[in-house]
Amino acid sequence: MTISEHADQPRLDPGQQLGPLTVLFGLVRACRPKQWLKNVLVFVAPAAGLALVSKDNGSLTIHWHTVLQALLAFGVFCLVAGGTYLINDTVDVESDRMHPKKRNRPIAAGIVPIPVAIVSAVVCIGGGLGLSLWRSWEFCVVVGLYAIQTTLYSFWLKNEPVLDLVALSGGFILRLLGGGYATEVGISNWFFIISCSGALFIAVGKRLAEKREVGESAKKIRKTLAIYTEDYLRFLQGVSAAIVLIAYVMWAFERADHHSGGATPTLLSILPFLVAILRYGLLVELGKGSAPEELFLSDRQLQVVGAIWVVLVGIGFYVGA
Asked: Which of 9, 55, 96, 187 is spaced 20 to 30 Å from 193 by Cα?
């Protein structure tokens, strides 16, 4: 079935009266709870810095104050992200109605009225910024930058080649930085390099999968999809994959040199990290990856490899501490 055929299918009449519960559930769905999975990135910096759990006198100690700070950061990013998704879907309402999947989003389908979506977006973003300022002004700056960047993406950046990829990557990076500032954990150079290149790898994979998904209708849905060629996107994917792999290997060897106690599991973690990158690249080639969070939740091999990586890195950190 073509996109035009999807678009010709009847949608909910915008004038139809809907119950408040229907609108409320639609509003929650429009905030894309599935995509809140990305916000677990706020836990990465404090976990890597041993701020959540540390080894004291041979036993593990949970730092509940820091855990609560990280949970606050998670909640803040969920609020702000939900608000920016509402803005994005309001701006994209017409193009979403021509998309085979996005046409079912609550705003595009007419379940959530546009005025309700706009007011809810302001409340979510305002509430998130208020909570982040209550935590610290540094954390608020990061959250504010995230809100500004994602809003600019909705109105402008997503139609600008290259800048759209930078903006998509920036969302992941700001989440990582936000976790560090919320828990007052410093960000290392290796952490920043791996985060940036890894985020670009996922962003490029998303665009490549989207381009294949919409086919010849790319120009109608998003200008950049018509401009990008698959060869160019593969080039960017290869470059970002190479950088993230090299950076991770160098970090692993450097940490092994400085923390001999956890050297073996840290070095072994290179293998599942490599397999995860290769697996994700294969899935993108098979036409998946337009929704990275759904891919991570559905692909069993990625989940198993990811779990092995977490265990090895965890052992390396806490044995070598």
From this structure: 55
